[in-house]
Amino acid sequence: MSIYIGENILLSKEDIIAILDSDSILQSNISEKFIKKFKKDSIIKKDKKEVKTYILSQDKDEVKLYESSISSTSIKKKFNMKGLKNIDE
Fold first, then answer.
1. Fewer CB within 10 Å: C terminus or N terminus of the chain?
2. Cα dihedral 6/62/37/44 (nearest 10)
3. E strands along the chain, which residues?
4. What is the number of structural domains in the chain?
5. Domain of 53, in residue numbers
6. CA–CA separation, 37 vs 56, rounded Å?
7. Distances (CA, A) of 64 to 25, 44, 45
8. pTM for this structure?
């Protein structure tokens, strides 16, 4: 099953590592440094709109960071509606 994260991007549910709220990330100094380093050193799929969510996913041997203008709450609801284990557990 796939989850739509915006900008015509679908991610396989098995590949999603984390769904992170951008406001929460920016409130934590350590998390903000992690995202900044990841943006600098890794592949990133950018959303052209305001970033509300960061999604980490595994693609073969590579971890990718995606930016999404869809809220983390909405993406988590889609994740849970697909018959998956509750992501917050």
1. C
2. -30
3. 2-6, 9-12, 16-21, 44-45, 53-59, 62-68
4. 1
5. 2-73
6. 13
7. 17, 6, 8
8. 0.80
